[in-house]
Amino acid sequence: MLKVLLVDDEPFILQGLKVLIDWNAEGFEVVATAENGQEAIAYLKENQVDLILTDIKMPMMSGIELLEIIRRDHISDAYFVILSGYSDFTYAQQAIRYHCIDYILKPVEKEQLISILRKVAAMSETKEIRKKDRQKMEAAYLARNMIGLLNGKYDDVNLEYVRNHMQISEGVRYIDIELTEQSDEWEDGMARGLQRDLYQACQEWLREDSNHAIFDVSHDEKSFDIGIIYCDYLAAKSDLTEKAYLTAFHSNLETILQRPVQMLVGKKVQDISGISKSYGTACILKSLVAFHAKKDIYYYENEVQVNQNGIVLCKNSLDALVAAIEQNEKIQIRKNVDGLYEEIGKMGVAGDCVNLNINYLLFQLIHLATEQDNEVNQEKILQFISESSFEEGIMRGSSVHLSRFCCEYADYLTQLRKNVSRGVLLEIEKEVREHYADNLSLRDLSKKYFVNSSYLGQIFRKKYGQSFKDYLSNYRINEAAKQLLKTDKKISQIAEDVGYKDSDYFIRKFIEIKGCTPSKYRKEK
Question: Crossing angle, helix 421-435 and helix 453-464, to 10 degrees?
């Protein structure tokens, strides 16, 4: 309902206006009346309204003077309509000067008032649309500046904009939030839709601090994440500790989405200018948590142990393991892993020591792979290989888990050295040409050609400029287009011929790729 304030020094006119029409039916509510301009100003200083209807001739302050003060002192941006018993053009001129939208002569007619209300409603709707568009643009610009800070690519202009448009306190963290159950089999747009649901749920939790949520920070096609800029004041104003606040935040997200959610909490920094350090530690967490026990919330300080309190880095054993991985010697890899765990076991602090030594190993392996191909996302490779080598019943970070991971990573390095992309991608092109109507997936093809699927996905995109899924969709639709022109088959039959069991989905994909429906394509070509 749009809120209305009526101002007139004659009570019976105020009452007559209130009963003249069904205000609610027009989407309006008369929330207050005032007998003079001073009463109106006092009310407006404490309350917001959308429309003010005022008489022009009143004691103490005229309607024109009321309008002038409201505009001059920025008391209200409500729409203004003047009521008068005088058809003097001078009044109308003055009213228009202060952005009055209409001038009605008394006695007010029902149809005329309804007409003005509908005009106000339309103007208000347009104004609200513009306001939302402006808010979206401002949010996008703030996010752009914030992402610059996260990546360490910023100057004083970016920093000042963030500080001026976001409430910031001391004690700042970057938090990565993702849905933990994601599937390659999801239909196009499903993951994106769930990401938007997650973003909205984060904004609802943050309420007036909703601009602390940033959509799509990583820009990784397989990562549907939301970034949160956490500041200590967020927990303090809820009278909670940081841990209690984030636990409640996490629980709220899972309740709303009815899906498991994971939080990766970067290292705390003193000020927003250091947020890139916190963001970097959250990225490190992404590649490490696959080796740690499953949790809802991971804190960098708890998961990434430093060499203190007598915890020792088993450097000789680790270097020997790295050498075995580099040479792809499976037997030696297993022996070195067993030797590493035996050495750790003798120290009596296995949990912390395992974390420290695995972290060191992972960074060494990332370095090895980067030497082979610096354009491949090594952290994603680490995460994928670790998850694929983990099975139920095997403890994360155990010697069996680490042995499997190291053996798979050794194969991955061998693939990089051989530059498998050339031969395998040619074979995959052939697979698509010959079996495009079948249920092809990159995961199955990677098993067939003994290539890590995450690596294969990245080299595929590097060569073709699109994901395998999009490549296959384009090929299928192009084959369908040929059949539309060369045969008189039904569209449902063509859809099935090129691999789509659902005709509606086939039509949506055809429109997306060709820009028109299959029927129109057949008719116009």
Answer: 80
